[in-house]
Amino acid sequence: MCGIAGILSLSGPRDIEPAVIERMAKAIVHRGPDEDGFFFRPGLALANRRLSIVGLADGKQPIGNEDGTVQVVFNGEFFDYQKVRSDLQARGHVFRTHCDTEILPHLWEDHGDAMIEKLRGQFAFALWDETTRKLTIARDRFGICPLYWTRQKTADGEFLLFASEIKALLASQMIERRPDPRGINHIFTFFALPGPVTCFEGINTLLPGHYLTIDPQRGAIVDRPYWEIDFPDAGQEEWGDYRRIRSNLQSKVVAGFEEVLRNAVERRLRADVPVVSYLSGGVDSSIVVAMACAQRRSEGKGPIPTFTISVQDEGFDERSEAALVSKHVGADESIVVNFGRQEVLETYPELIRAAEGPVIDTACAALLALARKVHTTGYKVALTGEGSDEWLAGYPWYKIQRALGWLDVVPGVKGSEAARRLFMRITGAPKVDWANAQRIQKAIGGPNAWLNVYGLFGAGKQRFFSKEMWARLGDHLPYEDLGLNLEKAKRWHPLNRSLYLGARVMLPGLLLASKGDRVAMNSSVETRYPFLDEEVFAYLAKLHPTWKMRGMRDKLILRLLADRWVPRSIAWRRKAMFRAPLDGFHTTAMPTFVDQLLSEESLRKTGYFDVAETRRWRTEFQNLRRGSSQRTMIEMGLVGVVATQLWHHTYIDPTLADLPAMV
After folding, report:
1. How far apart are CA 585 and CA 345, in angstroms?
2. CA 404, 405, 407, 413 torsion: positive or negative?
3. Across the chain, which distance is largest between two alpha carbons, in Å?
4. Across residues 489-507, what is the average pLDDT?
5. Cα 366 from chain centroid?
6. CA 164 remoteness from chain centre
7. How far apart are CA 291 and CA 283, in angstroms?
8. Which residues contact 457 (CB under 8 A, 6 or more apart)?
9. Chain centroid, CA 484 distance in Å
10. What share of the chain has pLDDT > 70, as a percent?
């Protein structure tokens, strides 16, 4: 993958100072250390930083069509580009490179913006059409590749700026850095930033499956979806041979899933550089590694190299499971990165710089270290198992939702609601405004499995937010920012509605951002996701939810398939949430910056958090039983406070601690 950036005048053609776009490109050099490229027209400047993976010798961007009237800067991979290229050549298009980027200007010539829905892969791009004098920027269906944009007024006029990372926008020096409390509210609600809101006022995330058309002559910016997640109406899903699954080990449905997943893995092994894989010992990454090894053997190659995180804390280390998988599939022993409490602390400032927002999931720091190891070992591309949990109900809160649903079998008796209130009381969570809870359910279309975790974690805002912060937020409700298609979703099975919310929030807001692209590309490593293949999603989406979750067994179809590929103990292993220790900020010998960020002076400077309550919980949580839900929620809240203060220091006000900043 690469990094892209651009500036377009909305106040008529005028020269863009080259130094501005060069600063923007330099700010994301880690996304493309191999070469840069620029394109200038009156009122327009485009930039690319290239991480060369396909077409190594001749893929320099921007890339245009035959007469140069269409120009593109591109970040990502089109895994079917060779077939698309052949089809375009058969229709008379002339190609000058061996790079997948070049299909874009030619597809545009044939289809205009209708081409976007035909694209397959992971991508973010900007395309300038000289004939219509319009700019189009677009992002892939699931949000693998990031893209941010902003509309800014300056003394020189009005401009549209876009970039793969926010730090490139800030490097333009055309934007006043101001925090957006709505973004922080998102973090303390979802522990993710799903967009379009960010933590920077006036800077937006382009949503997955969307594109912008910018007409500089009219100063018009139009945001359109070209694809949305969809499921069959309830009762219209495909059962296939499910009812005979116990006696039919050669299930046609499982075999069909095997075919589309193997094809997805094979496509993601295509590159002009070596490809490696992450391996945790969970069923998702294990089956990806197994299929990758089989594909490479069929091509006369050795097993795929693998990389594993060994979390140095009881209950978190999956090294033995990863070794078992390696032995079973004939792969070499994984390259292991050890990571513990002290490493969490030491890595967090770099993590916040990479993520450009507060990060509560400490496992992101571990994955940043893993990508760094991939890079220093000499690789650029890694496969991962992300996305399986999103399509196959792999999180524990789906089981909680199912169990609570059994309490509502008596008509007129809301046993699940009573159970939730009792649990909140037992864990010491602040009282919930049930009118607000109803407003949330309305915003997401009714009960949802994700509320079992978001509701508990979000209640922590009552502990830590200051009166000033609440005043700044007013009646802001993060769920209403999501723009869910409730008219369509209300027709789906309840499980699919929960999958939809996770795919809208957790997938682009955390797993593909702070846990995916941002920590990987920080070390110039491209991550590829077989479970986020368009055909894989389409195949799983049409199946009846019982293929995904039967009783309390999650990911049923994947486990049936994995039985053919990996050890049975791995195929049927209970979901283990990959995370690093949370309490390192408070029980380990702390670096000075933690105390500085949580000092009364620093907390009052930002105004986000209640000073007395932060001090109180920093002390009291250590007396709570380790492993209890109450302690975990308070730990996550405290990590959120530290991370938010660290983000503010890094990007807004560099006086909170003795740490480098990007101001």
Report:
1. 7
2. positive
3. 73
4. 96
5. 16
6. 13
7. 12
8. 188, 189, 191, 633, 636, 637
9. 18
10. 92
CA proximity to 353, closest of 368, 338, 340? 368
Q: Which run of H or E residues covers position 353?
A: helix 341-355
Number of Cβ within a 10 Å radius of residue 537: 21
Q: Which residue's entry shows tokens 């864990």? A: 427
Tokens of 623: 């007396």
Contact 268, 79 (CB under 8 A): yes
Instruction: Flag whether pLDDT at 145 surpasses 80.
Output: yes
CA distance 108 to 117: 12
- The DSSP symbol for 200 reads B
Within the chain, which residue ranges are assigned CATH 3.40.50.620? 242-386+512-571
Which helix (H) or strand (E) segment holds residue 161: the answer is strand 157-163
| 556 phi and psi angles, rounded to 5 deg | -55, -50
The distance from CA 542 to its chain's CA centroid, rounded to whole angstroms, is 24
pLDDT given for residue 4 in this prediction: 98
* Cα gap 476→469, rounded to integer Å: 11
Question: Can you read off the two tokens belonging to residue 66?
Answer: 């035959």
- Check: CB of residue 187 under 8 Å from CB of residue 513: no
Q: At what angle do helices 629-651 and 451-458 cross, to 10 degrees?
A: 70
Indicate where the chain has its CATH 3.60.20.10 domain(s): 3-225
- Measured between alpha carbons, how far is 460 from 633 in angstroms, rounded to an integer? 7
Query: What is the average pLDDT value for the chain, to the nearest integer?
Result: 92
Tens of pLDDT along 458-490? 888 989 999 999 999 999 999 999 999 999 999
The pair phi, psi for residue 410, each rounded to 5°, is -85, 120
d(CA 39, CA 435): 53
Q: How far apart are the first and last CA of the chain?
A: 27
Neighbouring CB atoms inside 10 A of 559's CB total 21
**CATH second-level architecture of 3-225?**
4-Layer Sandwich (3.60)
Mean pLDDT within 578-583: 56
Q: Give the H or E element holding residue 4.
A: strand 3-9
Using only C-alpha atoms, the chain has a radius of gyration, in whole angstroms, of: 24
Between CA 243 and CA 569 the distance in angstroms is 24
Rounded CA gap, 256 and 262, in Å?
Answer: 10
Q: What are phi and psi of 554, to 5 degrees?
A: -85, 160
Q: Torsion angle, CA of 562/565/570/574, rounded to 10 degrees?
A: 0
Distance of CA 442 to the CA centre of its chain: 25
Beta strand 70-77 with 63-64 is antiparallel
Reported CATH class of domain 242-386+512-571: alpha beta
Sign of the torsion formed by the C-alpha atoms of 368, 370, 371 and 373: positive
Structure token pair of residue 203: 């800077």
Please report which confidence band the pLDDT of residue 590 belongs to, taking 50, 70 and 90 as the band edges: low
- HSE-up of 163 (CA within 13 Å, CB side)? 28
Structure tokens at 170: 């800030």
pLDDT, tens only, 198-255: 999 999 999 999 999 999 999 999 999 999 999 999 999 999 887 766 544 568 999 9
Give the helix/strand (H/E) hosting 415: helix 415-426
Which tokens in the block code for residue 185?
A: 């509210």
Q: What is the dihedral of CA 83, 84, 89, 90, to 10 degrees?
A: 70
As to burial, measured by CB atoms within 10 angstroms (0-12 exposed, 13-18 middle, 19+ buried), residue 543 is buried
| Rounded CA separation 307/322 (Å) | 9
Contact 143, 387 (CB under 8 A): no
Residues 240 and 346: beta-carbon distance below 8 Å:
no
